[in-house]
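Protein entry
_____________
===
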Amino acid sequence: MPAYVLVEAEELDEERALEYRALAQRSIHQYGGVYRLRGVVPEAAEGTWPSPARVTTLVEFPDMTRLREWYGSPEYQHAKAVREGAIEVRLLFAEDRTE
């Protein structure tokens, strides 16, 4: 079953954020991930979105096992270290059980 990483992020340091994005992208592709949404400001149909500075990214992996391999990988751990203080994030993992 496909598994997804939903990311809510706010950039704090543009230069370091660019470095993080490049590292994260390489690691995501290396572990079979595909971007489905990238850096979009969602339209709130109900309720409120916290800020136009917060963006959403959605990444699809073949399954939860592969997603967790990516998340724990040395490649992504390095990207996370670069991200520290550059981007404030919230990550959610979800498995598609509709199939």
